[in-house]
Amino acid sequence: MTDSDLKFPDDAPDTGVADALRPLLSPPHDDYWGTLERAIMARIAEERGAWWSALGDWTRPAMLAAAVALIAAMALLSKSSSADAAIAYGAMSEEQYPVVESTAAAANDPAVTVHMLLDH
Amino acid sequence: MTVDRLAEATARRHGRSVTDERGVGDRTRAQRVEPELRPDYGALVRAARDGDDSAFALIVRGHQRRAYTIARAIVLNHEDAEDAVQEAFLHAYRALDRFDPAYPFGAWLGRIVANAALDLVRRRRVRATDELSDTVALPFRDPAEQGELKARLKQALAGLPARQRAVLVMHDVEGFRHAEIGEMLGMPEGTARSDLHHARAAMRRALHDMRSDG
After folding, report:
1. Nearest CA of chain B to the CA of A87: how many Å?
2. Alpha helices in chain B (DSSP H)
3. pLDDT digits (tens, 9 = 90+) for B136-164
4. Which terminal Cβ of chain B has fewer Cβ within 10 Å, N or C?
């Protein structure tokens, strides 16, 4: 059995005490409730405003950081593709002109060198 | 369902306009409002969660009187009661996501209000007894008698610990049960009973002394 199951003499509200208390707990004027409601809703609106402005304060630096990151990424990408192009070009050159190696190898022979100069 | 339709449905069920759920002390006289006559606070909370401020305004309208009475009993003066009520509703607004619809909204809010008011008392411990309302007449014709009674009641009320004042008002003025009060104030039901007993005794003494003197 809990306290809730028991009936105590104090369970019923004391109307004498309640009637005496009520005037002491009343707001300054009867039309106060509209004022209080507006004040509360203004606080709520303020709260929302603060949330949005906090977001706004963070938005600008965030946008700037995103832009910097984007530029850096594009620069890296561009640099990376230039390097790729150079490597590809180099690879193609090596394949297309294998004679260069043999030319270099034959550079010690003066007759060959003279012949090459005359050709060009 | 839109908030307007929700409000209309609630008003139809009440047979009146959508205003306060009940005035100060109405719950004592009429005891509990039947559940089917209560506004659908679960739906209002859902709408408010979704960002509908008009739904939250209806919640405020329905609960501000009781919130004010509880806060006023704890902090004793109008300005602090107003601060506590505003803080409590703001806190409730931020915590709407955590509200369990299975739990009575009034008791959930009551706990928030009581905590906000008790926090204020702990922080300030000032502006205590002198500022209880002087604007509403007590049921005595003789102004001198009224003034004397009011002074004694103020003194008796201010002499109680804040928690006992809260228990007294929640039970006798707002009609909450001991178990609900215990839950709202974070204490056992038996402690709520004991607090009520002591608080009532003090108030009855003040009233009795006045009648005996007369």
Report:
1. 58
2. 3-14, 26-30, 41-49, 53-75, 78-94, 105-124, 143-159, 162-168, 178-185, 189-213
3. 444 444 556 667 777 888 888 999 999 99
4. C
For residues B12 and B23, what is the distance between their CA atoms, to the nearest angstrom? 19
Q: E strand or H helix at A67, and its extent?
A: helix A32-96
Q: What domains are there in chain B, each with its CATH number? A: 3-213 (1.10.1740.10)
Q: Residues A29-36: what's their mean pLDDT?
A: 90
pLDDT of residue B15: 43
Nearest CA-CA distance, residue B139 and chain A, Å: 8
- In chain A, the largest separation of any two C-alpha atoms, in whole Å, equals 132
Alpha helices in A9-31 (DSSP H): 15-21
Which two tokens mark A92?
């193609």
Digit-coded pLDDT (tens) for B174-205: 889 999 999 999 999 999 999 999 999 988 88
Report residue B74's pLDDT band, with 50, 70 and 90 as the boundaries. Answer: very high
Confidence of residue A68 (pLDDT cuts 50, 70, 90): confident
H or E, element range at B34: none
**Single-letter amino acid, residue B149:** L
By C-alpha distance, which of A11, A8, A9, A4 is closest to B172?
A11
- Mutation target among B56, B64, B180, B195 for the A interface, most CBs of A within 10 A: B64
Sorted by sequence, the CB contacts under 8 Å of residue B43 that are 6+ apart come out as: B1, B6
Residue B140: both structure tokens together: 């005595």
B152 vs B92, higher pLDDT: B92
Which member of A3, A14, A41 has the closest CB to residue B57?
A41
How many whole angstroms separate alpha carbon A47 and alpha carbon B95? 13
Q: B68 with B81: CB under 8 angstroms?
A: yes
Predicted confidence (pLDDT) at residue B132 exceeds the cutoff of 80: no
ipTM of the complex: 0.72
Give long-range contacts, CB 8 A cutoff, 24+ apart: B122-125: B124/B80
